[in-house]
Amino acid sequence: GAGADNDLYINQAIVFIEDAIQYRSINHRVDSKSLWLYRWYYSRTCQWILSLTITVILALAFIEEPSSLTVTSDVRYRLPAWNPPCGLTESIELLCFLVFVVDVSVKSYLIGWKEFWKNKWLMAYILTLIVSLTDWIVSLSFFCKESVRIRRILRPFFLLQNSSMMKKTLKSINSTLPEMASVVLLLAVHLSLFTMFAMLLFARTKDNQQDKEWVVYFRNLPDSLTSLLVLLTTANNPDVMIPAYSKNRAYSIFFILFTVLGNLFLMNLLTAIIYNQFRGYLLKSVQSSLFRRRLGIRAAFEVLSSLKETPASAQQSCVSVGALLQVLQKTEMDSRCKQAIMRSLKMRSCDQLSAAQFQKLFEELDKDAIKQHPPSPEYQSHFMQKMQFAFGHPYFGYLGNVVALANIISICVVLVMDADKQPSERDDFFLGAINCFFILYYLLEMLLKILAMGLRRYLSYPSNRFDGLLTVILLILEIATFSVYGFPHPGWRPEFMGLLSLWDMVRLVNMLIVFRFLRIIPNMKFMALVVTTLLDLVKNLRAFAGILVVVFYAFAITGIMLFKGAVVPLGNTRYVGNKPSASVFSLWVNNFFIIFQGKKVISWCSAHFQAEVIYCLLYVLSVHLICRWAKIYFVAWWLISSVIWVNLFVALLLENFIHKWDRRCQRESLSDIEYQRTVELMFRDVLEEPTEEELMEKLHQHPHLQLCR
């Protein structure tokens, strides 16, 4: 009947608006049962279960054999790790696979058979599950003794396919690859040509004393290529040129030319190309997200205009305000946006909304999230008003910064004076007394600010929360120190008592005081701009962090399978030539035994731009004659993580910073308002609105929705 149809239209509108809010595609089934299943699937509980399942299956690598459950990574000192019995982790893994099977089944049903064959991600999802389940069965048939588990490498795919933003980012990266490949090819040509020149310049001669460059770095083609590749990362600079430079200073020209052309020109050219191309593709991705949002809102308008209560005499489609209010009450959306839209509806004099008016209402979703701070308390007493003015003034905050700086300087002076003293000779009286004085001032400053601003307004500022939390922690530590070791006095060096010694307690307090000095950042305009740019990257670029986790995980698992046991304990090793150096020894302690150490080596690679570790690992693997093909693994890691990924991150960092820099002059500096922006809003000023014809054409192509017009 008419009532059932109206309920269906209302539910369709609710789902379409929620799709628009989340930038989801509306190409799914729209019958009553499918809509209920769709909302259940995208509910917080269901998505939380799915996220927990992905976390669990990724975390299994830390307890599977070889287990990472040891305190130290040093194989000389660690106790035998606990390895779970066969079937324990496999049972957990099977439960995760069952959740994924339900997930892919629901997704496939909701989009329909035709859309399923167009969706490559879903097909890859099913293929990954089939391969993983097959490998799981093989693992059980071998009683968990097999050395290669393909499904472990495939696990990051479950994280990847669950995030639409990660898939968009990956698509943007994939679109940028042709342009990046041209510069990488130019780098390869540069590397190959200079390798040939190096083999000709540093060829073997009759004098063995003059052949150190040839022996160490340019003995053959693979060694020459490796030496110059590492030089491209500047890891072996100037070591690689010292033997030749000692022989003839003119040889330095070769290395200078190689470094200038490779590092200063080609690598920076790669950064420029990646910034230019990736920004364009990311802009296209955000443009498609905007189109999805507008399409979802327009679809909601079309189904609501089909309600039986809509006036038949209307010349054009329209939606009643009452129907939209009914939809909004059931829609899950940000309370700020919902209240703003409802206020706009209640202020309208007309009861009907056209398509343009309907769309304009939901532009509230595109606006900056604005956080307004609560008002300060109003005191009746004239004395309290003066107190509020004095301690709420910015100059009082500046005074606090000066005091914090004085505290840092005093700590530095005491540390410099006590640097060479033995613990038994150190007198902690001065440092203890100084800390006590400054912590009391910090407490007084916090209380006076709360008095002037009110507790709610004080806590609404992140800098105040940071400052107040550290002040409370410092006060607790100081009280604990006095209760255990008494008040400071000359010759204050009591015996060790409790969990921490007096020096440990003082050091902990001093570290927190140094950390508290970061409170000056909001008062320094340009420094605050840089910090907010970094914070926005952390908050908004979760997709990049997710893809980085996928890359780390895949390379760590691959490294464990390829190099597990390859670097053997030094006591069982026959040295080739000289005894391994300290760097080689540290590598033996921290090699690919377990997942934590595999990730640690990979993380160490990232921290040092992969160069030092590549150089050390290639040397060790060559010394032990494992396999020269192992170089491919580390070079691939360097290309993906350093050459491509670091440049992508630099590109987004530049885009975010330039955007903030351009907007800082356009927006008033209001102390009571904070603006919070997302990646989509970052490009909002340059996006193009879709036309009426484009939206209606796309709606008429919907595989499951039949429009009345």
Structure in words:
With 709 residues, the chain is mostly helical. It is 67% helix and 2% strand. The two termini are 21 Å apart. One of its GO terms (molecular function) is ligand-gated sodium channel activity. It catalyses: Ca(2+)(in) = Ca(2+)(out); Na(+)(in) = Na(+)(out). It is found in: Late endosome membrane; Lysosome membrane. This is Two pore channel protein 2.
Describe the SSE topology.
Elements: H1 2-21, H2 32-41, H3 44-59, H4 88-118, H5 120-141, H6 150-154, H7 156-161, H8 164-201, H9 212-216, H10 221-232, H11 242-247, H12 252-304, E1 319-320, H13 321-330, H14 335-346, E2 352-353, H15 355-361, E3 369-372, H16 382-392, H17 394-417, H18 429-453, H19 455-459, H20 462-485, H21 502-516, H22 525-540, H23 542-563, H24 582-589, H25 595-607, H26 611-623, H27 630-663, E4 673-676, H28 679-682, H29 692-700
Helix pairs in contact: 1-2, 1-12, 1-13, 3-4, 4-5, 8-10, 8-12, 8-23, 12-27, 12-29, 16-18, 17-18, 17-21, 18-20, 20-21, 22-27, 23-25, 23-27, 26-27
